[in-house]
Structure formats: C-alpha cells, structure tokens
Amino acid sequence: MSTSMYIVYFIIIMLLPLYAQMKVKGTYNKFAKQRTMKGQTGAEVARAILDANGLYDVRVVPTQGVLSDHYNPATKTVALSESNFYEASVAGAAVAAHEVGHAIQHKEACSMLTLRSKLVPVANISSNASWIFVMIGIFASSTNFLLLGIILLAAGVVFQLVTLPVEFDASKRALVQMNSLGIITNEEERPARKVLSAAALTYVAAAAVAVLELLRLILIFTNMRSDD
C-alpha cells in the first residue's frame, strides 16, 4: 500500500466514525427538544408498544448515561437513558421504539438477532485477542501469528456486518409501531426517521472501518508471504 493510500485510509477510519457520532448527537439533541403531540415519555412509548405486542413480561427501566439505551434479551429488559425514560420528545420516542423493536425481534426469534447474540462472546474474545496476534505477527515477521490475528479479527467483522440488518429492521419496526399506535403524528414521522437513520449511521461506520482494517491486514499478510 502506497503512502498516499495509507493517508487516505487513516483519514477514512478516523473521520467516518467521528462524522457518524457528530451526526447522531446533533440529530438527537435537535429532536430531543421537540415534544411529541401525544406527550408520552420514552418509558410510556416503550410500554405501549410492548403491551400492544403481548410482551407484558419485558420490563422498561432507566439507565445512566447518554444514548446508552439498549435491549437485554437475557433479562428481557428495555433500558432507556434517563432523559429518554422520563422526558417526552420525538427523539426519545424513536429511540424507545427502536429498542422495543429488538424485543419484538426476540419474541419472533429473528434469525439475525439470534445469530448476533451467539456471536457476542466470539466477538468479545476476538476483539481483545486479535490485535495481540496481529502485532506479534507484524513485529516478529510471523505470517502464522498474523494470519491467526486476521482470522480472529474477521470474526469481529462478521459480527459488525450481522448487526446492520438487525438494527435496520428494529428501526423499521419502530416506525411501523409508532405510526400504527398513534404515538407520533404524520409531521413527526420525518424527524423520528432522521433520528433512527442517524443512529444507524454509527453502525454502518463501525462496519466500514472494520472491513477496511481487515482488508489492510490481509494486504500486509499477502505482502509478507510474497517476501518469504
């Protein structure tokens, strides 16, 4: 890889995630100030959608942090950041509905969600161990160690790629549920969609960076093999 290509590569892997984070924070902050006509808090939105889908056993709880919202399939819990849990806004409603979208996926045994859940421990191990083998491989000029690092890193890339359709589907479900239950008006659908699209961009950026890094390491491996 030439020097100019390296520069372009590093600019992409640095700026793409930064842009995605700025986009989601800017969009969220903008529509967190816009109250929904119905005036439901994020907790009320989540509970309404859960009950409408027969998910009475799924709890909705507040959690600390900003944009720390998530669904835990192990405990059947929708955790919403405190601002989304207690306040009524278009952004909060969209985020809450998105997390409930994951709960609905769980109920329906969505194949991609099931696959992602199974990949979590593999991704956690590979993300921690891959770079150890990569660094050993590069500094010791060992193609075997580098190849092992690449294989482990590839597992993490698979996890990132599987995450994309799971997140896109949850956002799609969120919009359908909010519209069908009258949680948002027609005028509020566009800003809600913007919030969900901005959030999805962070996953796209993470996946793109992971793929680029994997390709770079494969190129390094190929060059090392050709020099042997």
UniProtKB/TrEMBL annotation:
Matching Pfam families: Zn_peptidase_2
Keywords: Membrane, Transmembrane, Transmembrane helix
TM helices/strands, residue ranges: 6-24, 119-139, 145-164, 200-221
Coiled-coil regions listed: none
PANTHER family: MEMBRANE PROTEASE YUGP-RELATED (PTHR36434:SF1)
Protein name: Zinc metallopeptidase
Organism: Lysinibacillus sphaericus CBAM5
